[in-house]
Amino acid sequence: LFHVICGENFSTRTRPPPDKSKKYQKGETIQIITGDLIRSIKIPRDPSDSINLPSAEFKRIISASQVTTKEETEALKEAYRRKKEAEFKAAEERKRQLYEIDLSRKENPALVDLEREAQKWSEYLVKRVNAEMEQEEEIKNLNKLILNAQCQSIRDHQIQEKKKIQAKLSKEERRLDAMMEVDRLKALETEGQIEELQRKQRVKAMQQLHHQIQGRLEEKQLQDVTKELERQHMLKTQEKMNLEDLEALEKKKEQQQRLHMEVMRINAENIQAKEQRREEERLADLRIMEYNQRKLEQEAEYEAEQKRVKREKESVISRLRTRQEKVKDYMAEQNERHARRIQEISDREWRREQKELALKKAQEEAMLRAARMEQVHCKERFLSMEAGRERADFNRVLKVQEQALVRQKEMEEKQREKALRHAETIRQQIREHELSAIAKRREIFQQAHELTNEDHERLVRLNEVKETKLKKLRTMGLSEKCCKEVERKARDFPTNVCSASNSLNEPEKRPQARSSILPSVQFSFATNLHSQLHKTQVSK
């Protein structure tokens, strides 16, 4: 597992492959032949051979070799028991729901399609709400925390596995070294026993031979020639045997020397492999330390960035809140100015029309007076000449004047009705403006209330999702320390629901103040308009 983590090939970290020509197969038996002894020795299998495993087999062995502690076993049993209980409860709930659905279908068979559509729609809504909740910034941050906790737990577990593997490898190396040392001592002891036995056998044979020679010399002193020949023959045989023993001893020493050199070479290779493995492990530890250092630096940078983003968000929210209040005040002031401007325009228009009517009336009166004077002059000039014509002209002019007066009265009546209609229109506009302002305030209050409720519901849903994810994180088998750290960071997430609701509820006082001012302004405006209309009617 350690080599897989470091990105290195497992086969390159095992022992160097031994020379197969100098190793014996499992169960092979060799014979050692000396001058007076033949021994059969069974060679055990060399445990120092390295094995190149594929990655899948290596992962399977590592997963099978993991030893869980008592607490982990109890936690797994408890999680399995809770899972079984949850599955049993879910199955019971599904059975109950299916039973109720069957009963409802039997009672209301026509509602099956509607129930299916409602169920599909509810499932769609649930999926959509869950997807939207997953896109929330708090849930994304919580998912990042959970992922970091899982990665940290996996990394700690890998480090523990690495330590266990290193301990096992060290223990196995010590065991192999002890076995090799025991085998070497046993081989040396066996060789010493064999040499001692051979020496005793040679001494015994020489003693027996000496006794035989002495006996034969004593018994067969008369047969000197024969015994001399026999003695010479025996001496030659003895020399030959001694030479054979010496040659066998030399061969044995050479073989022991070769075995000793082979053992020294294997020990040197093992020492070199150990040094190389220690160097590689040291480099791997350095890489892991560098990775941890980079990880800590990245986490520090990430926390600093999160704090900066949080400060920027708070400043942006405060600026937006101030800007929103200013915009609302400005809009209210603009509405009041617009209403006053409309009223002033209406007043100016009415005064202009009244002035035009008065001017037109004065012009008509001047024209009438001029016409009268002209008529008088005409009457005086033609009185003596056309008395009857003057009477007819007088009657005609009188009729024209009467018609003009009637038309003037009709025009004045129309102007008065027009002024009354205009005043009523202005009053209606004022009432509509008041109603629209009240409706707008109600709409603003309703929107603020809805936004507050939505933010409260969103906070409740976020808390439920957080609790669900934290419970799921605890069931994953992580350590209590990691779970508490994730829970603490999840509680530290900023929630702007209260601030948003306060910012939305604060402007309510200002519309109420404005609403208390508007009726007095409107009442004074209506009073002035009524007095002006009354003066106009009196003047007319």
Automatic annotation (TrEMBL):
Q: Which residues form the Trichohyalin-plectin-homology domain?
A: 133-478
Q: Which residues form a coiled coil?
A: 132-182, 236-315
The record's annotation in InterPro entries points to: CFAP45, TPH_dom
- Keyword Coiled coil on this protein? yes
- Keyword Coiled coil appears in the UniProt entry: yes
Annotated Gene Ontology cellular components are: motile cilium
Task: Give the top-rank taxon of the lineage listed in the UniProt record for this protein.
Answer: Eukaryota
Pfam families linked to this entry: TPH
Q: Where in the cell is it found?
A: Cell projection, Cilium, Flagellum
Q: Which UniProt keywords apply?
A: Cell projection, Cilium, Coiled coil, Flagellum
**Recorded family membership:** Belongs to the CFAP45 family.
Q: Which PANTHER family match?
A: CILIA- AND FLAGELLA-ASSOCIATED PROTEIN 45, NASOPHARYNGEAL EPITHELIUM SPECIFIC PROTEIN 1
Q: What is this protein called?
A: Cilia- and flagella-associated protein 45
